[in-house]
Write the structure tokens for this entry.
Amino acid sequence: MLDSHPFSAIVPFWQRQSPTQRVFLLIGLALVLLYAVAALLAPSLLTIGLPDPQEFLTHTPQQPPSPQHWFGTDRQGYDVLSRVIFGARAAWQVVLWATGLSLGIGFPLGAVSGYWGGKVDKVLLFLMDTLYTLPGLLLSLTVAFVVGRGVLNAAIALSIAYIPQYYRVIRNHTLSLKNELFVEAARALGASELSILIRHLSGHLGRDLPVLISVNSADAILTLAGLGFLGLGLPPETPEWGHELAQALDSLPTGVWWTTLFPGLAMTGLVVGLSLISEGLGEA
């Protein structure tokens, strides 16, 4: 039967989409897949002629796009195409770490807070609301300044701003589900409170998580670029779009447009792809 198939939900999901939403969702998935493949294959591309993104090409600084360097070179002699591709790899690494950390912390805190309530709920709610009221970029900047540069450190700085969002979503879902009949039935059969929370409730709490993850991922790309632009993201030698844009600004008035255009387009494309996915999932 169709209902028993593990992918049976895809058919009604697709049918609920308007033609425009289907196009948006397909474009978003295609863009995100393109960036994911580029990030995964980046090291392999070095073996077929892509210049090392950390290798100075001192004989060709600020060269315009050409057959030798498709996206040109920057003022330090780096190949811009290589920096853009490896920038996608760095962006995915930070976003995946940040998403995993914020979800891994926010999910259990929200579930515990919503299910047990009482003083635990009041304390956690106060802490999370305090964090939530702070501007995300400012909070990430503060944490990044304390923990320093690096992929994991940047992910920690980003996740601090997103943990309250996951907490609030999971807490609200837990509050709406903890008195449902299936929970009361499990409790009547002698299941412990912890068992009910883990085995019976946790599987029902992730309804809105795909939308939240895609929205936060798009926001994380921009926030990471902001950190890199201000010199607080990844180490300077690591290809990262925000850092590339910061380095390119001084060259822009002299007509060196490619060092700004291509990193900016790369960042915009991934953000647009993730935003289109969140839009399609939200409509469904």
Summary: The longest helix spans residues 80-116. The chain has one domain: 33-62+69-283. The radius of gyration is 22 Å.
